[in-house]
Amino acid sequence: MKARYQFLDVYRGIVVLLMIQGHVVREFLLEPLQNTASFRLHELFHGITGPGFLFGAGITFGITAQTRWNDYLSFSPSLWKRVKKIVLLLGIAYALHLPFLSLSKTLTHATAEQWNDLWNFDVLQCIGFGILILQLTVISMRKERWFVFSLATLMVVALYSAPWVWREGGSIPQFLSNALTGSTGSTYPLIPNAAFLFAGALVSYEFLRSVKLGKEAQFVKRLAIAAVGLHVLGFALDKLPFQTYAPYDYWSTSPNFFLMRIGLLTGVMLAGYAWCRWGPALWGFSPVIELGRQSLLVYWVHVQLAYGGLSILKKRAQDIPTATAGVIALTLAMIALAAFRNRTQARPFREWVSWRPATNAST
Fold this sequence. Notes:
By secondary structure, this protein is mainly α. 73% of the residues lie in helices and 0% in strands. The protein has 19 helices and no strands. It has helices at residues 6-28, 31-34, 37-46, 49-67, 77-95, 103-109, 112-119, 123-141, 144-160, 162-167, 174-180, 190-212, 216-238, 250-253, 255-278, 287-293, 295-309, 320-344, 349-353. Helix 1 (6-28) packs across helix 16 (287-293) and helix 5 (77-95) runs antiparallel to helix 8 (123-141). The longest helix has 25 residues, at 320-344. The two termini are 42 Å apart.
C-alpha cells in the first residue's frame, strides 16, 4: 500500500494490540477478578476491536475499489484476485470454527450444537460476506455515485433494522438467523455489524475524492468534527425520555451505541493519520505497523494460542500481574511473527528456502 495510506497499518496495528490484550486477559484472568466493575469497563473497551476490524476492512476495500474501479466491473485478473481473497478469508473463518481437526470426522461425528457453532458468524465471516456484498454492489451499480448511494442505504438499513431483525430471529430459517442475528450465538452477524464495514468504505471513498480535489486537509478536519459529533449524538439520543424500539439488546443492536463506536473508531483512525502526517517519522522498525500489515495472520495464530495451545494455563490461578505478563509475551511473539512474514512475503518461497549467503569469489 502506498505511503499515503500507511496510517491504515497504524490503525490496524492499534486494533490488533487491543485484540491481543483483551483476549488474553479475558481467557486467563481469575473468574473472581472478572466479576468486578473494572473488568466490565475493560470488556466495554475491548468490545471495540471487532468493529475496528470491520471498519478498517471497509476502508481498505473502498480505497482498492476506487483505484481499480474499471477492473472490478468485468471478469478481470483484479476481480478474480479479489474473489480468491474472499474465499481464502471465509475458508480461514470457518476452519477456526471446525469442531475437529479432521473434516471427515466433522461430517460424521459433529453434533447439532457443533454444526450450529460452525455456521455462526464471527468477525471474519462478517468481513468476508460483507466484502462480498460490497463487491456485488460495485458490479451491479457500476457508477461510483450509485455505489455510494447504495452503500449509505445498506448502512442505514443494517443499522436501524437491527433491533427488529434480532427480535424476529427465532422465526426465520436458521441459516439466515446465523448470518443476520445473534439469536443462535453469532457474535458478529451481518446486522448490524456490516454497517461498520459500509461506513469504512464510505469514509475511504470521500477521503480519496478529497485527495483528488486537493482538499485532503479540509476533509480530515471535517471528519474529526464528525467523529466527535457522532459520539456525542449517540450519547445524547440515548438520553431521550422515549424509546423508538421495544426492549432490545442494547450492546449488540443499539443504533445509538453504533454512533458512539463509529465516532471512536474514526478518532483512532485519525490519530494514526496524524501520527503518519505530522508525528515523528515511522522509519525503520515499527511494531504497530508490523502488526497492522499482518493483521489476518496474527489474528489466526493468536487465536490458536490463546484458545488452544495455551489453554493449559487456564488450570492455574492467574492474577493481574501474571495475565499482564502473558499479554506482553504473546504480543512480543506476534510482533516477531509479523516482522518475519513482512520480510519474507515479497520473496517467493522457493527463492527463500534456496537462499544462501553470497560468497567471496576470491576465496
